[in-house]
Write a structure and sequence with these properties.
Number of helices: 4
CATH class: Mainly Alpha
Number of domains: 1
Strand content: under 5%
CATH architecture: Alpha Horseshoe
Largest sheet: none
Structural class: mainly alpha
Radius of gyration: 13 Å
Oligomer: single chain
Helix content: 55-70%
Distance between the termini: 26 Å
Shape: globular
């Protein structure tokens, strides 16, 4: 994402989400398992947002909010996406 290759990053985040959902990932490696859920959803939402795909971004922020429902920023970003969709 740092290289602003948002479209190219989307499949990687989708794979991380799929691994987290299926439980099919290497558990012998040490890493923050949030990368398989909230971090992947949040990053995916950012990619969609930067590409102007606001409906998909809104949905991805909603998925991230399921993991941390108290993080208000996800609801704010969903609202922003809704407003931008109406333009």
């Amino acid at each position: 994402m740092e290289a602003e290759k948002y479209a190219e990053a989307i499949p990687a985040f989708e794979r991380l989400i799929a691994c987290g959902a299926s439980g099919l990932f290497d558990r012998t490696l040490a890493y923050d398992q949030k990368i398989l859920n909230i971090l992947a959803h949040e990053s995916l939402a950012t990619c969609y947002f930067r590409l102007g795909r606001y409906a998909e971004s809104r949905a991805s922020y909603g998925n991230a909010a399921k993991w941390e429902p108290d993080r208000r920023e996800f609801r704010v970003k969903q609202d922003l996406c809704t407003r931008l969709e109406k333009r």
